[in-house]
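Aim 2 progress update. The chain analyzed this quarter is reproduced below.
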Amino acid sequence: MNDPKSNREMLAQLVADYDWLEAHCRKQPDLARHAGHLRLAAALARNVVGGSLEGRPDAPLHIAVVGGAGSGKSTVANFLVGSAVAEANPQAGYTRHPIAFTFAPPTSWPSHLGFLGPLRKLTETRPSNLDEDVYQVRPVTAATPDDPLADDVVWDCPDMTTWASTGYVSRLIEVAALADVIVYVASDERYNDEVPTQFLQLLVKAGKAVIVVLTKMREADAPALAEHFRKEVLAKIHDDGTIPPIPVVAIPNLPPAERDDPAKAGAKWRVQLVNQLLVLCPTAKDARARTLRNAVRYLEASSDSLLDVARKDLVQLEGWKAAVSQGQHTFEERYVREYLVGEPFRRFDLARRQLMEQLAPTGPAEFLGKGFAYLRLPFSLAWDFVAGLGRRADMPNLPEATVLANAWTGWLEGLQAECLRRADGGGVWKDSVHAFESGLKQQGLDRFAVLARQFEQTEGDELEQAGRKLTESLAANPSMLGTLRYGKLAVDVAAVAAVVWWTWVPSWYHVLLLPVAAAASHLVAELAIRWRVELVRGAARRRRESRLREQVAAPLTRWLDELPATGGSSVERLQLVLRRVPENLKALAAAVSPANPV
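Predicted structure tokens:
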């Protein structure tokens, strides 16, 4: 057994989501037709599914007379009722709000929560051209005591003229959703107008039982016009083969006597119309069950297309995220190019000198090591001089804080420019333009300042630890350190001895080879240490780049990504709607199915 309270809450939420989507569509003129579809979905949920949840009785059935401007709807409503009760008027669009004709006031007029949505029931009779969100109920007398429509309600509705109207067309859709049978009226002059035909297609796809009434032709032309309507209009609706045949009835131009007395003088035309209704609705129970079944089926089947309007904004959100991602890439690239590549990280030069100092002999061999240091001094000075000739002068590097601030400002300005370029598309881009104009850039600068400060505080400690690790790792291994020290000293001794032995006949120029021999092992050690230090320096650069991404770029990207979908924005609501609508539809469909009575 389903929980009625829970079902009502789900229904209210579903309707609220459809209503919000419709209002969202109304802001975009090119989505006016889609807004009409959403209004129909909300009206079906309110009036059909909601009625079932509240246990609405099968009777009375509701018959809605709809059609384009000047098609003769009020005349057809009179033929259904059996008397001239509807205000037929030559002025197109005279009927501005729905009017219900009942042969006897229903014992319990539907009053469940959400019935007819925003329409308010009038307590007194008012003219049909009252242009307000209202409906009125007019009791009428049956033409005969056993009139077959005596238990039904006939609705005379406003015109189908445009999807863009938020007034009378919305009132029409509300009643059409409630209806168990749609009587679609088209005149011979305008039987294939675009908007009324689109309305007809929508109502048929929504599963409504439909009867077409063609009016205002000569009686002799009625069969040909009916056949032409079937081929030109109805055939396009039946192209998938899932919709039952739609009956077509003709009511030609009639003399005033027949038009004003449908039950007697015009009985010929009324009978064929009523007969088609009886065929479609053999019992009230069957008709009401069909209305509910088709409404649920339509809502489930059209869920994806009804939510397409949300997906347009979500596509824009993906475009926004792509622009943010591109900005992050440029931000990181500028940091590497303008700072990281040229930053020498002097702490590692100090570590290199300390490593070389660690290789100096200690103890009894200390004096021998110092002797070799003096011996190789001329070569070292000459080597440094030659190396300096090929070294480019160090260019002053911009401070890291300046590079980061400039890169972040460029990121924000690039996003703002992209928003301005695409603002005509509305949605996320237009909202983002307003956000920039409302102080988004300053918010970004404040947020960046906090992250950049935290990032910079880690740099000194990180570099100090990396430099200290270089020297401490060698000092922590005495055997390795001793091997390197005395191995280097042994090589120095062997190199000098080799020169002396090779030049055993001394000459003054042979003395020049002694500094070279004494510097050989020292140079190899220095190059090895330099190579090791450069590896650590490169790793520090990569680690610094990675830390920038983790501590600065990634948080800023997340903040920018989430901006359009936070703070009660339309995108935030759209994401919520996309998740809730299918879930609520599934639950409500189960609640009103025959296997799950409420």
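The mean pLDDT is 80. The longest helix spans residues 513-562. These observations will guide the mutagenesis experiments scheduled for the next reporting period.
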